[in-house]
């Protein structure tokens, strides 16, 4: 086979363009982020042609990246698995030797290692929402966190919501995949669904829309549910709201790290809230809400449909009930027979 020379930067751009048809924009950005380190390494090693890659060089990159990024086993696996996909694609355009992708080594992981345990506990969620209801009722932050906790939605789904998706009379909200107007959702059409809402969450949304929501549209003339004065609150902004609201000091709780709230940068500067070691990211809210629902005896299939995630994925990545808790719930069902 005759290889065709190509530099790493050009190859990456061609790869990402090729993947646009099959991956969500968030996934494209994730691939770009992981592979930019490979480009950095290629530049350091004076590799300006992918034809020169070998299995040994790929192993050298793996060891360098592990040390350079101080990666956990899970992070190393994610980055090397993405590199393998990229190298496999490079094989298809005769940029590297055939089967070079089989030489991309990635750590093996147990199911326990392949899960992330960060989760917003029920008590913490209730404390955060109680504080927001009392001191910042029907604010953007309140609506964002309450929606995530109540519906188990991902950030992309909350970002995609319009006022027209909300049905206050029948108390539900619809999630739609609209990539043509910049609001794709993770599972695309398969992620579209109707989500039932409680009286309390409907009252909150009603008050937000009637009293505090800016009367704006986005760049496509749509009326976003979670809006700022500039238009639709983007996903970065929604994440910022979560980081801000879940800081313990935000609601007057003691800092588990014994930091002085008046001197802690994450406490005094909302833009630095993500640096707080004791708050959580949006996915931790989703994980906590799913676990809370399971602990509340909501059937697994109901949680699966509501959260738009398969039972197998719930079992491995979201369910944080202990084996004893699961046993006691099964016992409750037996007592009803």
TrEMBL record:
<dbReference type="Pfam" id="PF00589">
    <property type="entry name" value="Phage_integrase"/>
</dbReference>
<dbReference type="InterPro" id="IPR010998">
    <property type="entry name" value="Integrase_recombinase_N"/>
</dbReference>
<dbReference type="InterPro" id="IPR050090">
    <property type="entry name" value="Tyrosine_recombinase_XerCD"/>
</dbReference>
<dbReference type="InterPro" id="IPR013762">
    <property type="entry name" value="Integrase-like_cat_sf"/>
</dbReference>
<dbReference type="InterPro" id="IPR044068">
    <property type="entry name" value="CB"/>
</dbReference>
<dbReference type="InterPro" id="IPR011010">
    <property type="entry name" value="DNA_brk_join_enz"/>
</dbReference>
<dbReference type="GO" id="GO:0006310">
    <property type="term" value="P:DNA recombination"/>
</dbReference>
<protein>
    <submittedName>
        <fullName>Site-specific integrase</fullName>
    </submittedName>
</protein>
<dbReference type="InterPro" id="IPR004107">
    <property type="entry name" value="Integrase_SAM-like_N"/>
</dbReference>
<dbReference type="InterPro" id="IPR002104">
    <property type="entry name" value="Integrase_catalytic"/>
</dbReference>
<keyword id="KW-0233">DNA recombination</keyword>
<dbReference type="GO" id="GO:0015074">
    <property type="term" value="P:DNA integration"/>
</dbReference>
<feature type="domain" description="Core-binding (CB)">
    <location>
        <begin position="6"/>
        <end position="91"/>
    </location>
</feature>
<dbReference type="Pfam" id="PF02899">
    <property type="entry name" value="Phage_int_SAM_1"/>
</dbReference>
<feature type="domain" description="Tyr recombinase">
    <location>
        <begin position="115"/>
        <end position="331"/>
    </location>
</feature>
<keyword id="KW-0238">DNA-binding</keyword>
<dbReference type="GO" id="GO:0003677">
    <property type="term" value="F:DNA binding"/>
</dbReference>
<keyword id="KW-0229">DNA integration</keyword>
């Amino acid at each position: 086979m005759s290889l065709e020379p190509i530099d790493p930067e050009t190859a990456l751009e061609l790869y990402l363009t090729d993947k646009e048809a099959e991956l969500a924009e968030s996934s494209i950005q994730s691939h770009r982020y992981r592979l930019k380190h490979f480009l950095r390494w290629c530049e350091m090693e004076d590799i300006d042609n992918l034809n020169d890659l070998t299995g040994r060089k790929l192993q050298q990159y793996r060891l360098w990246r592990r040390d350079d990024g101080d990666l956990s086993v899970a992070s190393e696996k994610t980055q090397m698995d993405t590199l393998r996909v990229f190298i496999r694609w490079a094989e298809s355009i005769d940029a590297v030797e055939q089967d070079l992708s089989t030489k991309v080594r990635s750590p093996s992981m147990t199911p326990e290692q392949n899960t992330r345990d960060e989760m917003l506990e029920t008590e913490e969620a209730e404390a955060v929402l109680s504080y927001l209801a009392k001191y910042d009722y029907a604010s953007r932050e309140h609506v964002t966190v309450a929606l995530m906790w109540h519906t188990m939605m991902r950030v992309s789904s909350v970002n995609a919501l319009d006022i027209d998706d909300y049905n206050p009379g029948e108390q539900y909200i619809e999630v739609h995949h609209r990539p043509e107007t910049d609001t794709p959702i993770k599972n695309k059409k398969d992620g579209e669904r109707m989500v039932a809402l409680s009286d309390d969450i409907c009252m909150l949304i009603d008050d937000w829309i009637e009293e505090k929501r800016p009367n704006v549209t986005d760049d496509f003339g749509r009326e976003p549910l979670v809006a700022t004065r500039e238009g639709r609150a983007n996903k970065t902004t929604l994440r910022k709201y979560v980081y801000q609201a879940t800081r313990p000091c935000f609601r007057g709780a003691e800092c588990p790290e014994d930091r002085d709230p008046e001197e802690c940068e994450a406490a005094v500067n909302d833009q630095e809230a993500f640096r707080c070691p004791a708050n959580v990211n949006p996915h931790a809210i989703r994980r906590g809400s799913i676990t809370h629902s399971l602990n509340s005896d909501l059937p697994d299939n109901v949680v699966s449909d509501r959260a738009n995630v398969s039972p197998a994925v719930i079992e491995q990545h979201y369910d944080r009930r202990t084996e004893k808790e699961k046993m006691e719930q099964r016992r409750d069902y037996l007592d009803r027979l």
